[in-house]
């Protein structure tokens, strides 16, 4: 009789183990390895298709600008007339271990003009594909949430 009870118990234990392995999410947006995002963003030019600053849509400030994330951590934004340079990096943020969707920081820094300086932050990578990178930042000062989306040209 004990053997008959042991077999279903072992089967349930095996199924729980299989279910926990299957629930693992291999989605690129939760990866802590910055290499794939660096590779994607370093190829081609990008444009900002959405920039919402604490609920205010300010995408129009970047209309016509193409962004190139180049070597030596230099980002260039140009519209054919004006060119602005800044710095960029994508790093693993180990301080957010409780929130795996934000374990990659996309750091952007522009000194000027004011509109581009607004992009200066350590953005959390929400998701990415070969053609779109979605970022978010929750401000520590005013508690507002900013979102930024780059789309490949």
Question: What do these coordinates show?
Answer:
The chain is α+β, with helices and mostly antiparallel strands and 153 residues long. 21% of the residues lie in helices and 39% in strands. The chain has a 9-stranded antiparallel beta sheet. A hairpin with a 3-residue loop joins strand 7 and strand 8. The chain starts with a helix and ends with a strand.
Low-pLDDT stretches are 9-30, 97-101
As an assembly, this protein is: single chain
Helix segment tally: 3
Order of helices and strands: HHEEEEEEHEEE
* Rg (CA only): 21 Å
Helix content: 10-25%
Structural class: alpha+beta
Mean pLDDT: 82
Q: What coarse outline follows from CA principal-axis ratios?
A: globular
Sheet with most strands: 9 strands, antiparallel
Measured by DSSP, the beta-strand proportion falls in 35-45%
Count of DSSP strands:
9
In the sheet with the most strands, the strands line up as 2-1-9-8-7-6-5-4-3
Distance between the termini: 68 Å
Task: Quickly list its features.
alpha+beta, globular, 9 strands, 153 residues
Topology (elements, then pairings):
Blueprint: H1 2-22, H2 35-41, E1 46-53, E2 56-57, E3 66-69, E4 74-78, E5 83-92, E6 104-110, H3 114-117, E7 121-128, E8 132-138, E9 145-152
Antiparallel strand pairs: 1-2, 1-9, 3-4, 4-5, 5-6, 6-7, 7-8, 8-9
What is this structure, in a nutshell?
This protein is α+β, with helices and mostly antiparallel strands. Helices cover 21% and strands 39% of the residues.
């Amino acid at each position: 009789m004990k053997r008959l009870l042991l077999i279903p118990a072992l089967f349930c234990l095996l199924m729980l183990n299989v279910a926990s392995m299957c629930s693992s999410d291999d989605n690129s947006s939760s990866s802590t390895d910055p290499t794939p995002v660096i590779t994607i963003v370093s190829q081609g030019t990008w444009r900002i298709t959405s920039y919402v600053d604490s609920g205010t849509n300010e995408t129009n400030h970047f209309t016509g600008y193409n962004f190139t994330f180049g070597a030596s951590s230099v980002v260039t934004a140009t519209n054919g007339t004006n060119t602005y340079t800044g710095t960029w990096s994508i790093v693993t943020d180990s301080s957010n271990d409780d929130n795996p969707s934000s374990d990659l920081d996309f750091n952007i820094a522009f000194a000027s003009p004011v509109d581009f300086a607004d992009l200066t932050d350590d953005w959390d990578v929400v998701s990415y594909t070969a053609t779109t990178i979605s970022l978010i930042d929750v401000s520590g000062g005013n508690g507002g949430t900013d979102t930024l989306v780059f789309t490949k040209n």
